[in-house]
Amino acid sequence: MDNLDKKPILTDSYLLKPECISSEYETNHYFPFKNESLKFISTTQNVLGGLYFSLDSDHYISCINGDVLFVIIDLKIDSPTYLKSSLLKLTSKEPCYIFIPKLHAYGYFSIKNSLLFISNYTNDHLGLNILDESLNLKFSNFIMSDKDRKNPSLNEIRSLLNTSYTNGLNQFDKTVLITGGAGFIGSHVAILLTKRYPNYKVIVLDKLEECSNINNLNEIRNLKNFLFIKGDICDFEANKKIFQKYKFDYVIHFAAQTHVDISLIEPLIFTKTNVLGTHNLLECSRLNGIEKFVHVSTDEVYGTTDKIPNINQPLEPTNPYACSKLAAENIIKAYQKCYKIPIVITRGNNAYGPHQYVEKVIPKFINRLLENKKCCIHKNCYDSERDFMYVTDMAEAFDLVLHKGVPGEFYNIGASNSVNIVELAKKLIVLMGKAKEGEENEYIEVVKGRLLNDERYRIDSSKLIELGWEQKISFDDGLVRTIEWYKANQNYWDKWDIVIDQFCDKLN
């Protein structure tokens, strides 16, 4: 094995560390992928197993006992690492799972007697001759079964691989790109579209910064019509490759810097991501052609107002975040007029629900109360009001805008749930059983004011309702659901970085 590349360099494979469940007597490693058919393989010291691959199924492999050298070879046509290999050592002392995508061959060499398991194992595994010179693998001092020695060469199965790859690209009616799809709202939209439209290929592009979490996509990450790409919308050359490779029909653009307080401290970051990043995506769309581009803006472009603004309301943003979103809207208008790109713009108000990062007001209050701490309210926010929409209702709105929204139009996405921030805190305090009604102030603390605060954001969503949207989850029901989710996932944001580097696909 002396000339194998000994770094995990392949485009689609990645490592995943398990969670540990310890007791007084032993530590078990919890396999996180449910409803998977498992195959256990006993290996013998100095015995070489493989190569094997699947045309249709992805797999996870781990070493339960012993030590194994594990080789992966990329057989995916047009992959940046096509026919390149990676060698990793698996040991039960430091357990991890290796993700093996379809069209990737794998084999193993036992350093000592070992036990492996393969998830999602099916009978469609095909053999490949590990001694094939075109694979450029050099082995010595090993034992191999007669079955493995008789596996076909790469040349014998090349047409099968080519056909499978081509069919994989062409089996879907539409291909959808969701930028920022590992974030809060984006992940719910990705889940909805992937499950509702099995004839769509849904591809999420996300940089995986602090407000994103790959675990937000657990429901769909093993589905055949879903793919994740780790990437940055500010990297134009990488974006151009992605657009050329996947030929998107639809783009839904969530990726953005969104925290108002941070925008007041580091405004240039917001200009780079929200303006330049959006411009990059528009240019890629222009160069490759798309059916529809849905741009996710914000109700904050309206500024604070006592009136309920419709889409014709004058725009008066009051902070660098809102200004960066309005700047992106203006570039969009230019691309609509000059290049006739079919673009729809949404302006949404506050969403809440599962997957939301803990910096936002509702999860922040819930998590503080779970820790038996007080809800901190800024002095100049005491009279602030916000409208809140449960996140699945918002995901339904984006599905509707994607399919029925008219290019060139704006759609406000908001609910009529206007609530004072103090009243919000009191609702949560009572719902979580911290105090009775009338005694909530025991769990409220007033702290120094924010650098800047808009009193209220309210919007008129009549155009969205005309498309057929309706609110299904009431504010109180949504709060109960959200509380239960955060109770069940109190360490959710502490563990997301167990996924090492990329999740599925990374373009060099």
Descriptive report:
By secondary structure, the protein is of the alpha/beta class. The chain has two domains: 14-167, Jelly Rolls; 172-497, NAD(P)-binding Rossmann-like Domain (Rossmann fold, 3-Layer(aba) Sandwich), CATH 3.40.50. Helices cover 29% and strands 24% of the residues. The chain has twelve helices and 27 strands. Strands 16-15-14-17-18-19-24 form a seven-stranded parallel beta sheet, with helices on both faces. The chain is globular, with a radius of gyration of 26 Å. It starts with 13 loop residues before the first strand and ends in a 20-residue tail after the last helix. The model is unreliable at 1-8, 19-35 and 495-508 (pLDDT under 50). Keywords: Lyase, NAD. Pfam families: dTDP_sugar_isom (PF00908), GDP_Man_Dehyd (PF16363). Belongs to the NAD(P)-dependent epimerase/dehydratase family. dTDP-glucose dehydratase subfamily. InterPro entries: dTDP_Gluc_deHydtase, NAD(P)-bd_dom, NAD(P)-bd_dom_sf, RmlC-like, RmlC-like_jellyroll, RmlC_Cupin_sf.
